[in-house]
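Email to the structure team, subject: Probable RNA 2'-phosphotransferase model.

Hi all, the expression group asked for a predicted structure before they design truncation constructs. Nothing fancy, just the tokens so they can compare against earlier work. One-line instruction: predict Probable RNA 2'-phosphotransferase, return tokens.
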Amino acid sequence: MDYQSLSRTVSHALRHEPWLYELELDDAGWVPLTALLAALRAERKEWRDLAVADLIEMIARSEKKRHEIDGDCIRAFYGHSLPGKLSKQRSAPPAWLYHGTSPEAAALIRQSGLLPMERQYVHLSVDTETAMQVGGRKAGAPVLLKVDAAAAHAAGTAFYHGNEMVWLADEVPAEFILPTAW
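Reply from the structure team: attached below.
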């Protein structure tokens, strides 16, 4: 089983275009496992015998915890680009969070803060290594931004727990992004 390919397809189905797989996500992004399995089995003939155990193994092998199973349902933790926001529970973030980006985007962020762009939420990392890895997908020499999440939260910025490595925010005003990060 190619679990990486399976994970990419599951992410696409649960984060971006569920309608292509004839899936209906609820307000929190959950879909029945039986519906996802039926869609995946129809997607590729090598997945015709796909089982819940394969999805559990896919999640276990993933370095980045992108999906979760609860009972008879599955969802993607974060990264949705669907129209309309999935409901998330507000949470108090760690004191500091990080965001890796391109130098060009950093110049815009300095003016307008961090905005979700084509996603539902701004993605923030709990450590610099993860943020730089994410930023590396956008630029050969990414810029690391340090976010004073505690101060932003105290001022009313909404944060949501994505998983153990990722936090989400509706947006982060520029005043909470340290000038030394520029």
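Helices lie at 3-16, 33-43, 52-61, 103-112, 128-136, 149-154. The chain has a mean pLDDT of 90. Ping us if the truncation boundaries need rechecking.
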